[in-house]
Amino acid sequence: MYTGGCRSASNQFAVTFSAPNRYFGVRLSLVVLLLATAPAVWAQGPAASPVRYTEAREHPVRRTLRLPGTVESPTVSLVASEVAGVVAEYPMREGQKVEKGEPLAKLRTETLQLRLEAAQAQLKEAESRLKLAERNLERARELFEAKVVAQQQLDDAYYESTAWQGRVEQLTAEIATINLALRQSTIRAPFSGAITRERTQVGSWIGIGDPVVEMMSLDAFEVRVEVPEQYYPGMRVRAAARVIFPSVQGMEVPGTVSALIPKADAQARTFPLKVRIPNRGGRIGAGMLVEVALPAGDSYRATVIPKDAVVRRGAQDFVYLVNGDNTVSLVAVRTGEGVGAWVEVQSGLSSGQKVVTRGNERLRPGQAVTGTPLEYPLP
21 lies in which domain range? Predict the structure, then answer.
């Protein structure tokens, strides 16, 4: 309920609210206040986005030659037996990893044990007879000096002692040979690696030189690359290389040129080159197809930026530049050679400009930012 009067002279209204309508008036006043302050809030725009940036640098870059390659194990062995015998234990299976010195197979050793016991008994007898012969020789010398015995008796005593000395040495060597055969009856891994093929079974007879297993090392691999002859003179041993695995998303491994083979293929006119790579985590296997990036030609200076700064949209690369007024602008660039965590920029920006390296995925051109420097070590 309200009552009001109109004053014609001043054209004003007088309104009296009842108690319930008084709350309505308060709400109406708040709405009017918000509408009055909204333009000022909107004028401020969205809050500045926090980003990390890095300055573009000038750095020496060398052109890269990309060639296909195949992963090979540098150490592949057909492990054979050094003694003949029947296989008593054969614990290994294909694909199993083994450490250096771990048993691969064990042969029966009963016959060797019996031979060892017999030789040891014969050695004891020979040593006893040698002692007796040495005492007889000493007495013969004393009697010969006293002119009691003839030269012939002294000579007989000497030859008897020498014969038993030879017998002791012979049996000692025989025992050492049997002990060696006993040790060799356990065929051990010559290096750490993996079993790639089984070549015998329990109960099989194997002779000297017969294969037991095939195995290869896993700690490091080599990539074989065929280098065209025009690039061969520029290749260097111990040069750094990068090995990319197309079958494994984003997998790239650093490598080192370990060998240059100076003999070209007669038909292809390519020279074999080997790149040594580590196998951390055991993700690499022999026979994998890879792409090898090798340095080729002389180095030159170029503008480089961290790879994290590059934003790819379709077939075009972009970077966000931090402007002097703390806004960002989107700039198209053409990238070139990769240099570790950095990449060459052939056009679009110059050394010293600040590029966004963290937080660039959520930016838009013209957006205000608060930037913090982020340093990347140069390669």
Answer: 4-39
